[in-house]
Design a protein that fits this description.
Mean pLDDT: 89
Number of helices: 3
Strand order of the largest sheet: 3-4-5-6
Radius of gyration: 21 Å
Low-confidence stretches: 4-11, 13-17
Shape: globular
Strand content: 15-25%
Length: 123
């Protein structure tokens, strides 16, 4: 009886201690197409939807999208802009006096810097 009780307790501990950790906000999935965990939605979303949810939560994307950045004198700290480059697009955030990839400011998953046009925004 004592052995059976020990076995039950051991199996119970193993089953509760090996439960998978929930994904981290901004974590990329392993598969294709790319999916990112959004904590607020409690769901996997595309990187583009992740950016949209991020900007919507702050009142919307500040400067829309395009190939030319807004005039420097018109932008404010934490304004956002979806820049379009030949290889794709990338969400940018104005931070400490210059445009940066939003991931460089927010520190989501490093794979964001490899997504779409993000590797090429400073070329």
């Amino acid at each position: 009886m004592k052995t059976l009780l020990m076995l039950i307790l051991t199996l119970s501990y193993i089953s509760t201690s090996t439960a998978a950790e929930p994904p981290v906000h901004g974590e990329f999935s392993e598969g294709k197409p790319a999916q990112v965990w959004h904590e607020g939605e409690n769901a996997w979303v595309t990187p583009d939807n992740f950016w949209r949810l991020f900007t919507d939560g702050r009142g919307g994307i500040t400067w829309g999208s395009g190939e030319s950045y807004p005039k420097y004198d018109d932008v404010n700290e934490h304004d956002t802009f979806l820049v379009k480059v030949e290889s794709g697009h990338c969400l940018m955030e104005f931070f400490h006096g210059r445009w940066r990839r939003a991931n460089d400011v927010q520190r989501w998953n490093p794979l964001f810097t490899e997504y779409s046009g993000c590797p090429d925004v400073f070329k």
